[in-house]
């Protein structure tokens, strides 16, 4: 006997009022059935099954009876969710609560509790949760506390104007989240930091944040930045940081071409990065970005194709440890033009003794840039010591000459203006002749 026919004799069974589809997984479609309460439904169904209760007269989602094999539930057009409503759905994987009138007040810390053990609730195995098309402006901070397996959360078409503190706390509780849909939520985000997660690629939902100006996605597990990873909708994005990835090895054509306002790009400390395609910064119209600041420190890049970057607009370029050269980088004009394909004028920002020096003028001699430890250069400091000694000797000799000349002049003047006067004493005084020097 089929699953549907086994319940035909029971007038209160779900199949007497709902469409029971013998598909895999088995589905009970109770949509628009004018149900005012949840009837006695199959408690002993021993196969995985799905239940849809959309468009009925039920005003709230009450606590469900034990349905140990129910894996998917859709419940729309309701206003209120009872605490512990899904407590007995121990195998529920997918839950659709979209198109309701739910607000932040509809949720509590016990909304998604699982069965209790030793007075503590266990998590339910929910992996997909759809809360789209509601009136949610914020989320309570602990609403997802018991969802330890959630991978996909859909929050699109709600009334979020910004990500409040409690909303951010609620989202941070979901350690297993792989996909977050915040499209069409009126968000006016200007800065978003998604660093330190496990995103294998750039989430497409980011492209709905039209007001985004600064995006940080450092320390994720990207392997490749693909064409159209970033859409034209991010027209206000001016700063992008994709650093500290141990897996990023390639940037493909068109990866950043749609970011028309991008001015600062951080791609530093991607220790496996070996390839940036020649058209990575070009869009479909072959227009290049007006990038001004680029960081490419500490990677495995061996060369930069001449057409890869908008060189004429760049005012700051950091190539420290370019190609993972940890000790020092020797830069000459031929290397810049030939090896790195950089054929225009840059000025050095470091080290200090070469600050402002035009790189193109380094053709006269090689310049060594110490990237990490400052090592003692005996030859360099030998020149300094010798120069100091020579200058000291010159100053000493010059001082001696000047002193001797002044002393000589003073002696000559003294002899010229001095007079010897002889006179005799009057009577009753010594008759000895006294000689005195009188100076006028």
UniProtKB/TrEMBL annotation:
PANTHER family: MULTIFUNCTIONAL ROCO FAMILY SIGNALING REGULATOR 1, PTHR48051. SMART domains: LRR_BAC, LRR_TYP. GO terms for cellular component: cytoplasm. Keywords: Leucine-rich repeat, Membrane, Repeat, Transmembrane, Transmembrane helix. It comes from the Eukaryota. The chain crosses the membrane at residues 381-408. This is Keratocan. It comes from Armadillidium nasatum. It holds the Pfam family LRR_8.
């Amino acid at each position: 006997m089929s699953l549907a026919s086994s319940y035909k004799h029971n007038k209160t069974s779900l199949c007497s009022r709902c469409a029971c589809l013998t598909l895999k997984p088995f589905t009970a479609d109770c949509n628009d059935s004018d149900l005012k309460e949840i009837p006695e439904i199959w408690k002993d169904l021993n196969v995985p099954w799905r239940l849809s209760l959309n468009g009925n007269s039920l005003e709230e989602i009450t606590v469900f009876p034990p349905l140990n094999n129910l894996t998917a539930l859709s419940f729309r057009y309701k206003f209120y969710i009872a605490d512990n409503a899904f407590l007995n759905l121990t195998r529920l994987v997918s839950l659709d609560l979209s198109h309701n009138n739910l607000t932040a007040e509809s949720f509590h810390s016990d909304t998604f509790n699982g069965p209790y053990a030793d007075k503590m609730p266990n998590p339910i195995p929910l992996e997909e949760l759809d809360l789209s098309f509601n009136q949610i402006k914020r989320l309570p901070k602990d609403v997802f506390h018991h969802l330890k397996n959630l991978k996909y959360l859909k929050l699109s078409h709600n009334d979020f104007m910004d990500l409040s503190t409690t909303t951010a706390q609620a989202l941070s509780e979901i350690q297993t989240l792989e996909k977050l849909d915040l499209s069409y939520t009126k968000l006016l985000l200007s800065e978003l930091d998604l660093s330190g997660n496990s995103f294998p690629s750039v989430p497409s939902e980011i492209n709905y944040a039209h007001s985004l100006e600064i995006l940080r996605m450092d320390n994720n597990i990207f392997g490749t930045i693909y064409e159209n990873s970033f859409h034209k909708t991010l027209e206000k994005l001016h700063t992008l940081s994709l650093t500290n990835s141990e897996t990023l090895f390639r940037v493909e054509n068109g990866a950043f071409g749609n970011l028309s306002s991008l001015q600062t790009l951080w791609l530093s400390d991607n220790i496996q990065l070996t390839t940036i395609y020649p058209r990575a910064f070009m869009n479909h119209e072959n227009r290049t970005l007006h990038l001004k600041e680029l960081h490419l420190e500490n990677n495995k890049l061996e060369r930069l194709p001449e057409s890869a970057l908008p060189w004429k607009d760049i005012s700051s370029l950091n190539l420290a440890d370019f190609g993972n050269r940890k000790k020092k980088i020797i830069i000459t004009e031929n290397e810049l033009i030939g090896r790195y394909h950089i054929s225009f004028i840059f000025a050095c920002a470091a080290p200090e003794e070469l600050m402002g020096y035009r790189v193109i003028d380094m053709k006269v001699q090689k310049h060594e840039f110490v990237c990490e430890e400052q090592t003692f250069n005996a030859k360099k400091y030998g020149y300094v010591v010798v120069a100091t000694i020579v200058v000291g000797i010159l100053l000493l000799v010059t001082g001696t000459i000047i002193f001797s000349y002044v002393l000589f002049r003073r002696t000559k003047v003294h002899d010229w203006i001095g007079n010897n006067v002889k006179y005799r004493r009057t009577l009753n005084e010594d008759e000895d002749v006294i000689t005195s020097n009188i100076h006028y």
